[in-house]
Amino acid sequence: MLPLSAAKAPPAPPLAYIAISMLGAAVAIGSIAGLSLWSGTPWLMAPFGATCVLAFGLPDSPLAQPRNIVGGHLLATAVGLAVLHTLGDGGLASALAVGLALGLMQWTRTVHAPAGANPLLVLATKPALGFLFSPVLLGALVIVACALAVNNARQRGSYPKYWY
To answer: pTM score, two decimals?
Structure first.
């Protein structure tokens, strides 16, 4: 094993890969922003930006698979809403919500790191229960649809690695 100081970072991806990643992230977030304008309801949330990093920058990662994107966002948000409505929005509730969300995502094999922020977002903004559907479910589905199109245009049949 190399000493930590001798370890090297992996090489940067080719410029074409980077350009397609950038395009995919921009199209996904632009689509969600457009739906916000069209519906008059805010759909953009910070965790979706982090989801795009995984879905377009690291599409082979288990964290970037559709079940993880959709399931992770849904479960973590549901936990946040449940904690908000039972324990409130304090620091202990925040800690418990993030811990429970991680445990539930691990148990269901839907770990998605950006979704770990969802309980904190829920406790900070106190949204209605419909938040779980819009923007969370619909936004996650938009990102997955864009990832399917962009990643498979980049390399046919490459995404997803698995559905379930």
So the answer is: 0.93
pLDDT given at position 3: 65
SS3 content of the chain, % helix, strand, coil (to 5): 75, 0, 25
Residue 150 CA: distances (Å) to CA of 19, 25, 49, 135: 11, 9, 16, 22
Banded pLDDT at 73 (limits 50, 70, 90): very high
The gap from C-alpha 1 to its chain's centroid, in whole angstroms, comes to 33
* Two structure tokens written together for 51: 């989801």
Region for residue 109 given its phi and psi (left: phi exceeds 0; alpha: psi -120 to 50; beta: otherwise): left
* Domain assignments of the chain as residue spans, ordered by start: 15-154
**What whole-number distance in Å separates Cα of residue 105 and Cα of residue 110?**
5
Cα of 29 vs its chain's centroid, Å: 12
Do 134 and 41 meet the contact criterion of CB atoms below 8 Å apart?
yes
